[in-house]
Specification:
This protein is of the alpha+beta class. It has helices at 66-80, 118-130, 136-145, 154-161, 171-176, 186-197, 363-373, 400-407, 424-439, 457-463; strands at residues 3-6, 23-26, 32-36, 43-46, 49-57, 60-65, 107-110, 165-167, 206-208, 214-216, 221-227, 233-240, 244-250, 253-261, 266-272, 278-281, 306-308, 311-313, 319-323, 327-332, 345-347, 356-361, 377-380, 411-414, 443-448, 468-475, 478-480. Strand 9 and strand 10 (214-216) form a beta hairpin. The longest helix is centred in the last third of the chain and has 16 residues, at 424-439.
């Protein structure tokens, strides 16, 4: 644990120079972090050193000496070299048969349905979204989040460009919970889908049940379309209404919440850490506000705690291993289902300034940045997925960046979240993305802002704060500002 020291007259705050209210934490070999109550700049020069703001905690801005920050980051990256999380997954062809075999282990042989061409995906997903509506609680969530003093009617502007809808839960969950959905039942939706298309083979998110009827992913929540460089919807992403909520506390216990539907009851089950025992608990009804039982839900309709996997792929793929004599056969658990993968998406509207493209993480964030900047915006499914920028798109042959370059893009603005200063894996991914972009000959800029105004750049734009863009140039030692 770090040692905390309060500022006093013989050792004032390194940032503001005052003798009270501020403090610092000594982490020993990794150095000192300074907590300043008075100054909230992105970067400051004091005592002959440059200090950068890492995050905001309880009204304090946390500063770290820039040399110390860079040293710790390099040491952390070096310690992670060779670990699985820092190795690119080996990309296999669509008709893949195996992966690299480790001596002494059986080879895995994969069998998968190939993904349909972009034209078919676009047709099916457009029709699927046309059958859905955005439920009132999701609309309220977006309106509250997109309530901008500088961009009136932001919600109407974005939803007028891209179809954001609600996918209702499975019918038995819906009716057991007596939830007042405006959407059709899943049974009705799938009947209309099959009446129009006959089969949904090759469409990620759809699969056949044992009785031969088609159905879709169990996920329920807000649906966001993902586009390729031709403007075709090639995947869907779901903001899960019922994710696992970890690091939760209930009656003094630590554990996690899961939303389940049993024959007897439906609701959030709390599972104590280290045990299989479950306790059924409820919260406030998100529609009526009526207190049902025992816990208070957040405005998102979920128990308090850390949400695990908020945004998920609309997929119908789950690996199932079958042991053979000489190899392991890997099949899809879902009959005639198709793998989605983690989609990269481009949000671009008529009239956008095609000379510059922004890159961020998350579909909803990308939509907001596009609305404010008037430039195309690429959404990455995760900070470490920067490699997808330069991989060939399905059915197109060229990468999304090559397609944008051909359309006239010269500048790239990288907009990773402000927590890159406190999360080493985000900082590492940003550095690697910068290398890739510069190596491909683009002019690179990096957006910076104080986390005090929001973790994501969309939060800054909504409140009227524009991120500062720094030009990045490449030298032999790597990218520098």
């Amino acid at each position: 644990m770090p040692q905390k020291y309060e500022c006093y007259h013989t050792r004032p705050c390194y940032i503001c120079g005052k003798k009270d209210w501020c403090y610092w934490l000594d982490y020993g070999s990794t150095g000192i972090l300074h907590y300043c109550h008075r100054i909230h700049d992105d970067e400051i020069i004091a005592n002959g050193h440059i200090y950068i703001a890492k995050k905001v905690v309880s009204g304090c801005t946390v500063y770290e000496d820039k040399q110390q920050y860079e040293r710790n980051l390099e040491e952390w990256i070096a310690s992670k070299e060779g670990e699985k999380s820092f190795r690119r997954r080996k990309l296999l062809p669509k008709n893949r048969t195996s992966v690299e075999v480790i001596p002494g282990e059986k080879e895995k042989v994969y069998e998968e349905y190939p993904v349909a061409p972009p034209e078919k995906l676009d047709e099916v997903y457009h029709y699927f979204l046309s059958l859905l509506v955005l439920e009132s609680w999701h609309e309220k969530l977006l309106r509250d989040e997109w309530n901008s003093p500088v961009f009136k009617n932001l919600y109407e502007f974005i939803t007028g460009l891209w179809p954001i809808k609600t996918l209702p839960p499975n019918d038995y969950v819906r009716f057991a919970g007596k939830m007042p959905y405006k959407n059709l039942t899943r049974k009705s939706i799938m009947e209309k889908m099959i009446k129009k298309f006959d089969t949904l083979e090759g469409i990620p998110g759809f699969h056949q049940k044992e009785d031969g009827n088609w159905t879709c992913s169990y996920l329920a929540g807000m649906v966001f379309p993902c586009y390729n460089s031709n403007g075709q919807i090639i995947r869907l992403r779901i903001r899960d209404d019922f994710p696992v909520v970890k690091e939760a506390v209930y009656k003094g216990w630590t554990g996690e919440y899961r939303y389940e539907c049993t024959k007897e009851e439906i609701g959030w089950f709390f599972c104590k850490e280290g045990t299989e025992n479950k306790v059924l608990v409820f919260g406030y009804d998100r529609i009526t506000g009526e207190a049902i039982r025992k816990i208070s839900l957040t405005q998102n309709g979920q128990p308090p705690g850390k949400v695990f996997g908020k945004y998920k792929n609309f997929t119908s793929y789950k690996e199932k291993n079958i042991e053979k004599e000489d190899f392991i056969q890997v099949i899809n658990y879902y009959n005639k289902g198709t793998r989605s993968g983690s989609p990269i998406s481009l949000y671009m509207k008529p009239g956008d300034d095609i000379r510059t493209v922004y890159i961020t993480e998350g579909e909803k964030k990308a939509m907001v940045i596009n609305a404010f900047t008037g430039c195309p915006v690429i959404s990455l499914p995760g900070v470490s997925n920067y490699g997808k920028l330069f991989e060939p798109q399905e059915g197109i042959g060229m990468s999304i960046m090559d397609a944008l370059r051909a359309a006239g893009v010269v500048n790239v603005v990288l907009m990773y979240d402000a927590d890159k200063r406190s999360k080493e894996n985000v900082a590492y991914s940003e550095k690697q993305a910068m290398e890739q972009i510069l190596m491909h000959g683009f002019i690179l800029w990096v957006g910076e802002w104080l986390q005090y105004f929001g973790k994501g750049s969309d939060d800054c734009y909504i409140t009227g704060v524009k991120p500062v863009l720094h030009r990045i140039v490449r030298q032999e030692s790597g990218p520098v500002k």
